[in-house]
Amino acid sequence: AENTSSSKRQPNEFSATLNGAVNDEVDDTKTIGEAALIEERRRRREAIKNKYRSQASPLLVQALQLGAGPNSASPGPESAATTPGRSESPPSSAPRTPQDLSAPQSPAEVNFDANTDLSNPLKGSPSADGPSAADYDPTADMEEERARHDKRLFKEDEASIEHAEHQVIEQMKESSAAPFKPNDEFDMFADADDDDDMFAEAPMKPKTEAKAAQALDANLMDNWDDAEGYYNTILGELIQDRYHVTQNLGRGMFSSVVRATDRHTGNAVAIKIVRNNETMRKAGMKEIDILQDIAANDPEDKKHLIRLEGSFDHKGHLCMVFESLSMNLREVLKKFGRDVGINIKAIRAYAQQLFMGLSVLKKCQYIHADLKPDNILVNEARSTIKICDLGSASPITENATAPYLVSRFYRAPEVILGVPYDYGVDMWSIGCTLYELHTGKILFTGRNNNGMLRAIMECRGKFPHKVLRRGSLSFDYFDDLLNFRSEEVDKVTGRTVVRMIDIKPKPVKDLRSRLMPKDRRMNEQERKELEQFIDLLEKCLDLRPEKRITPNDALKHPFLLKVKA
Predict the structure, then answer these.
(1) In this structure, what are the phi and psi dihedrals at residue 248, rounded to the nearest 5 degrees?
(2) Contact by Cβ (8 Å): 440, 341
């Protein structure tokens, strides 16, 4: 569980210290008041930034503007900075193919017209108060969350603040050459962070001549890896005398992905190159076994799970070759439904395919454990999706209590509470994903697991006592009477405090009020579709894991049956 020691400090601790210092006539040093302390921290941060401003690269200059204020919008095609190792899409390990910026031609039955007037993103938005799903980076967020947990960064004293500031500066200095790392100081949803929006459309790069494919001589390099164990890909390299590497697609936490041309077939493929690490190699071998088992249970490739075409070792790295697809669903939201969502007919088609994929996973007794828009790929026509990145997947028999399993905003409450979990964790993640597709907004957001539980209860109501009593971690968040202890940051002192929160059984901002506000105008057909969609989401997001809808039952839900005009 996360360190909450700072939350146990007495509220008047600072005042007592201050009064003692003032009354000490021997000591001439005056204790800084709260306002002065905040101002001193601000000046120190500015001094650190100014120290590096003179030697800043363009990307560092951009990073140093993180405190510029609300006018610091995400860089557009003409102003965005380009970082080596980062692509237009999130640096996940999902295989995909880069796309141009032109809008695709989608089939009529799966068009991507948003649910509201695109000329005014705020007009008629079903959920204008949530953070944008298009700009969220779950990979960086997960790295940051693990860093906070491992390094106990929740302890908000001067030492942790200085440590965080040092890490920010070091990342700024290295950002032009190193793979993307999370920012340890700034809120990922603050306006300032948008200056380095990894989902911003990248500027056009000068075209480079395609290099002739050639195998590289191992004697020409002392080390094929960087300091973190990622493979140093060289464009034009011929791997296994077969795959001509043409482009870097990005890096995830466990691997990098490159685009290559298969010289045997002439087709484009995506190659996932696992980091040179024994633990990650074992995880990669496990992923291969799972993918092969799934393929054996879906011989006709009709169940919407990514296809593994082969695997091999290359200079100490385990490599996996995948079919190449177009973009992931977060990119779809960014291009077609930022802050407003996509057409409900497209959501229906995607939902049906997702539940088909989950049905195969359940048949094979696997939990994906990391479902989110980033790990769902679409083809070029945007009509077919496939679930990818099974690096976190495991057999149902191997599930164990892990409070940081699944990216945080898609994490089922039973995982946080330490309740034994099963296939329902994937269904919860799909419910969150479908909500994002419809609204363009993230449903549940919290800075940590405590914040996630509060966000969930504010939408879905109180947890049944039976569920809480089953959780091995429940009393990290609830007292003996099962009242919720909410961790909040004091706006003045910056310290974490705990206060008891009364959660209403029937929240005001439930799913229905978010998706069907009173001022939203709809015809009878639209209302019927939305009613069915809300009912499906409520069944996906049931707080009782055992009552959550199953994939096969979801496929029979009225929302997925074609509505006749």
Answers:
(1) -80, 130
(2) yes
Instruction: Tokens for 391, please give them.
Output: 């690096």
- What is the reported pLDDT for 227? 86
**Taking a C-beta distance cutoff of 8 angstroms, is the pair 361, 423 a contact?**
yes
Report phi then psi at 337, rounded to 5.
-150, 40
Q: Distance between CA 303 and CA 357 in Å, rounded?
A: 5
384 in the same domain as 352: yes
Q: Are residues 227 and 315 in the same domain?
A: yes
- pLDDT for 353 equals 98
Q: Which of 370, 374, 426, 476 is catalytic?
A: 370
Same structural domain for residues 385 and 247?
A: no
**347 near 533, Cβ under 8 Å?**
yes
Output the CA torsion sign for 109, 437, 358, 556.
Answer: negative
Tokens of 8: 């146990």
User: Is there a contact between 130 and 423 (Cβ–Cβ < 8 Å)?
Assistant: no
Nearest CA to 416 out of 374, 365, 362, 463 is that of 463
pTM of the model: 0.67
Please name the amino acid found at residue 271: I
Instruction: Look up residue 548 and give its two tokens.
Output: 């959550």
Mean pLDDT of residues grouped by 10 in the chain (565 residues)? 42 44 44 63 68 48 40 35 36 42 38 43 44 74 63 46 50 44 39 37 39 57 79 92 91 88 95 94 96 96 96 95 92 93 96 98 97 94 95 91 91 96 97 97 95 96 95 95 93 91 85 88 91 97 97 97 56
* H or E, element range at 394: strand 394-395
Do 443 and 341 belong to one domain? yes
Known catalytic residue at 217? no
Tokens representing 135 are 């700009």
Sequence-ordered alpha helix ranges (H) in 123-228: 138-151, 158-174
Please state the domain count of the chain: 2
Q: Which domain holds residue 279?
A: 218-323
> 244 — phi, psi (to 5°)?
-90, 110
Q: Which helix (H) or strand (E) holds 498?
A: strand 496-501
DSSP H helical segments within 260-363, as ranges?
278-296, 329-336, 344-363
pLDDT at residue number 112: 54
Cβ partners under 8 Å of residue 342, min gap 6: 112, 113, 114, 115, 332, 333, 336, 437, 438
Residues 542, 419 within the same domain: yes
Nearest Cα neighbor of 450 from 511, 497, 490, 385 is 497
Closest of 374, 323, 326, 302 to residue 90, by C-alpha: 374
Would you state the pLDDT for residue 91? 39
pLDDT value for 562: 65
d(Cα 270, Cα 233) in Å, to the nearest integer?
13
Distance CA 513, CA 419 (A): 29
Which of 201, 198, 179 lies closest to 90 in space, CA to CA?
A: 198
* 298 and 407 share one domain: no
Q: Which of 259, 293, 323 is the last residue of a domain?
A: 323
pLDDT of residue 182: 39
Q: Assign residue 532 the CATH number of its domain.
A: 1.10.510.10
Would residue 314 count as lying in a domain?
A: yes
**β-pair partners for 261:** 244, 268
